[in-house]
Recover the amino acids of this structure.
């Protein structure tokens, strides 16, 4: 998912700016979109299933617009917990003794179901199966505390990987999990308006410049006096490596590491670790682009445009069913003449289920590639993500049940090789990172209960 928030000391068209910020984060979730806007008195909410441009047509955007808006938040969703239903879309709102609150959330709380079960036994009410509601309920319960203290208390209670934006009628809060697994950045516009976003690309979209990342375990809030910070629970930083491998946009920079540059380094590392004799380096667009540039640069094999990507097709992975994903690959990708008669090094960022990869190899062979050497800029994904990236259940992960040689055979490549885990760490270059989906070592814990839709 993607989250976005604005706090403006001067009246601003925040509905429009929030729309722009959400649009820049569309790659982080295409299932639902929503926003809240307040002017200190009125509090408007609109959300629905669909893309940002589908949900917010002119009429709908007008309905949340407030001429003197001061605070807003936005969310784009793809479901990791809670099914893809309208009532599960975000922001979630509720009325508390601190006034009406809106929350938008990226990531997962691994102990949300335990906390939720406890709260149900104490008589709490829940309207959704969304784990964001647990967070909101925890905040509402601390009726003796002010909003910032109550939010900090809720952060201490929930574990996992998350980045959230929370608004009242008059204030904006942002907070990031203790390990900083999910990203969150702070920006500011020239008119003084503050912005929070999952990625810097959304700051640039609203004319804000990147000020800094929210730190792991940090809570920031904005009011008339500007930016305030509270270190609630900082731990060893382990930001999600998948943000750099695949998820984040290539014009974003997270925790000081530029996404595009890190992908180039991954490709260069891959070329050093897993070289091959070939005629042309071809990326699987768009996610394999950076790594392919790096592989070509390091190996000296020419880079070429071997796969056309239909720009009107969305991200295939996020299509909800296997069949939908398979059909969407053909809608999306088609080989060009650049591969005919060539030994191709095909570069992609990841192999998850292996189904897309198999179809792509097939497409290249049909188009006349004489050899297809598959190189992957992430290590084999052997474990599920519990922190908000939908890398599928363990049994669907092809690398959790197959060796590299078996995967090679399955996808029909001449050779197949992945970047090593240390090689990936080196390419990203940060101090720490989460690589749990490659190693099974979960820095922010694992869930005890995991079957959300079976619960009350
Ligand atoms: P597969 O061959 O495993 O079916 O598909 C691999 C492709 O899925 C890669 O091109 C990768 O970019 C893409 N992909 C799309 N969304 C996701 C996601 O959420 N997680 C992961 N791990 N890969 C994804
Ligand atoms: Fe990212 Fe993988 Fe860790 Fe999930 S398990 S947060 S996808 S590195
Ligand atoms: Mg891809």
């Amino acid at each position: 998912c993607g989250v976005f928030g604005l706090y403006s000391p001067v009246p601003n068209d925040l509905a429009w700016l929030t729309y722009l910020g959400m649009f820049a984060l569309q790659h982080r979730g295409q299932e639902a979109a929503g926003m809240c806007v307040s002017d200190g008195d009125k509090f408007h909410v609109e959300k629905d299933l669909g893309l940002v441009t589908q949900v917010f047509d002119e009429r709908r955007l007008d309905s949340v617009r407030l001429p003197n808006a001061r605070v807003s938040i936005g969310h784009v969703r793809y479901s990791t917990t809670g099914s893809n239903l309208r009532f599960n879309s975000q922001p979630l709102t509720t009325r508390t003794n601190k006034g009406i609150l809106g929350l938008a959330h990226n990531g997962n709380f691994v102990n949300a179901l335990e906390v939720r079960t406890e709260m149900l036994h104490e008589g709490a009410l829940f309207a959704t199966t969304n784990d964001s509601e647990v967070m909101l309920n925890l905040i509402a319960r601390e009726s003796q505390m002010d909003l910032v203290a109550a939010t900090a208390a809720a952060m201490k209670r929930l574990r996992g990987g998350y980045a959230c934006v929370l608004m009242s009628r008059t204030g904006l809060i942002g907070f990031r999990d203790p390990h900083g697994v999910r990203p969150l950045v702070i920006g500011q516009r020239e008119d003084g308006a503050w912005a929070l976003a999952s990625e810097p690309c959304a700051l640039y979209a609203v004319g804000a410049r990147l000020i800094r990342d929210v730190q792991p375990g940090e809570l920031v809030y904005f009011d008339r006096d500007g930016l305030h910070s509270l270190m609630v629970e900082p731990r060893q930083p382990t930001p999600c490596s998948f943000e750099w491998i695949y998820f984040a946009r290539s014009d974003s920079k997270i925790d000081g590491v530029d996404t595009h540059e890190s992908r180039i380094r991954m490709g260069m590392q891959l070329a050093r670790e897993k070289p091959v004799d070939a005629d042309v380096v071809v990326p699987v667009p768009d996610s394999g682009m950076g790594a392919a540039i790096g592989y070509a640069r390091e190996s000296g094999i020419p880079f070429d445009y071997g796969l056309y990507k239909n720009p009107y097709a969305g991200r295939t992975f996020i299509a909800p069913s296997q069949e939908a994903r398979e059909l969407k690959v053909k809608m999306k990708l088609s080989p060009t003449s650049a591969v005919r008669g060539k030994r191709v090094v095909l570069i992609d960022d990841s192999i998850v289920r292996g189904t897309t990869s198999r179809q792509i190899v097939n497409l290249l062979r049909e188009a006349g590639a004489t050899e297809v050497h598959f190189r992957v800029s992430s290590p084999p994904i052997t474990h599920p993500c519990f922190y908000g990236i939908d890398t599928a259940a363990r049994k669907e992960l092809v690398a959790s049940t197959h060796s590299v040689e078996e995967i090679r055979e399955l996808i029909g490549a001449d050779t197949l090789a992945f970047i090593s885990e240390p090689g990936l760490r080196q390419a990203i270059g940060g101090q720490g990172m989460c690589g749990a989906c490659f190693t099974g070592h979960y820095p922010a814990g694992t869930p005890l209960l995991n079957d959300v839709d079976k619960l009350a």
About this structure: Residues 260-439 form a domain with the Rossmann fold fold (CATH 3.40.50.2020).
